[in-house]
Amino acid sequence: MSKTYKVMVVGMGKRGMHHATAFKANPRFQVVGICDIDAARLEAAAPKLGNPKTGTDATALAKDVKPDVFCFCTLPNLRTPLIKAGIAGGAQLIAFEKPVALSSREGMEIKKLLDASGVKAVVSHQHRYGIHYREVGQLIAAGGIGRVHTVYGTATGWMTHMLSHLIDYMRWYAGNPEAQWVMAQAAGRSKFADIHTSPDYLGGFIQFANGVRGIVEVGAGAPDVPEVDYWWRKCRIGAQGTEGFAEVLTGGGWRAVTSRGVFSGPGCMNYDLDMPPYIQEMADWLDDSKKVHACNFDSAYKGMEIMMGLCRSAAEGGQVALPLAAPADELDLLKKVVADRKVLLSSPVNAKEYGG
């Protein structure tokens, strides 16, 4: 008989409820604890989740309920304390929201904590479970566009919201290679004030060890994706090869042109469809360590290094070698050097968020 794993979820906002609801719907999991600093949220959420234990102190609740899975869905400035809480509570697996961290300094500290504890971890890059993402991934893996030489990703949303996603899927389509170096530029200061602290616009290049070149743009200067109406889903991720190209639009399906013809299909970001396989893979990995979760921390950490390397390049100039050799506080570096000039937009669709 398959084991049922106990789960504790921290953060009962929109994303926390997505996770908690998906855990409850999967028979391999039992939600035994939920935590939030807002008691009203806990009161509203508990009946929907089988009335688990509740609390406003994550460390104390984790030690009480002793979860197998410690999941937290909090703002990006809350990472290290909750990783420590999950480890102290005896969790076998910690699941948390992207980005991994807001600096390489914190990312490296989180990696040390996880490596020392032996606790598995996953990061919520769950868009990859969308049928349109998978169709493109399968076509590329089957050699449908020949040898991949370029991968690209664009999003009109700002860096700390979106770049982690883009890098994860670009690496997937490139064959999950190591990155050797990055180079970037940044502009605009308005989003430094946001809790998802970011420059308004960042664009850069990634050189992968297998020879594939990555090109990425996020924020005010990123190109519009006119095929997609909903602003937050104006993301384009794809690959070019020796025999064609294939790309996915987060809110608008997929398409490809290959030596065998022209292909396309539907698909749109949908938590109801994307969350169940993300959650199920946690049970699979806990059952068998060889069934590594597609959103595993080691892969996400490599993406974090790429993102922070791009920030370092924009702050300091020139190329930045990877993996990163020493910690830094990259967003602080950027805040010191990004010019206090109004960012230039790529499209009127970005005016609402970045000014017009």
Overview of the structural elements:
With 356 residues, the protein is an alpha/beta fold. The protein has two domains: 5-126 and 272-295, NAD(P)-binding Rossmann-like Domain (Rossmann fold, 3-Layer(aba) Sandwich); 129-269 and 304-337, Dihydrodipicolinate Reductase, domain 2 (2-Layer Sandwich). The chain is 35% helix and 24% strand. β1, α1 (14-25) and β2 (29-35) form a beta-alpha-beta unit. The longest helix has 20 residues, at 297-316.
Features:
35% helix; globular; 356 residues; 24% strand; Rossmann fold; alpha/beta; Dihydrodipicolinate Reductase, domain 2; 2 domains; 9-stranded mixed beta sheet
Question: What's the gist of this structure?
Answer:
The protein is built from eleven helices and 15 strands. The chain is of the alpha/beta class and 356 residues long.
Gap from first CA to last CA: 60 Å
What number of domains?
2
Determine the CATH superfamily of the largest domain. Answer: Dihydrodipicolinate Reductase, domain 2
Share in helix? 25-40%
Q: State the shape.
A: globular
CATH architectural name of the largest domain = 2-Layer Sandwich
Q: Average pLDDT, to the nearest integer?
A: 97
How many β-strands, per DSSP?
15
Widest beta sheet: strand line-up:
14-13-12-11-7-10-9-8-15
| Low-pLDDT sequence parts | none
Instruction: Compute the number of helices.
Output: 11
- Seen as an oligomer or otherwise, the chain set is single chain
CATH class membership of the largest domain? Alpha Beta
What is the CA-based Rg, rounded?
Answer: 20 Å
The CATH topology assignment of the largest domain is: Dihydrodipicolinate Reductase, domain 2
- What structural category arises from helix and sheet content? alpha/beta
What is the chain-wise order of helices and strands? Answer: EHEHEHEHEHEHEHEEEEEEEHHEHH
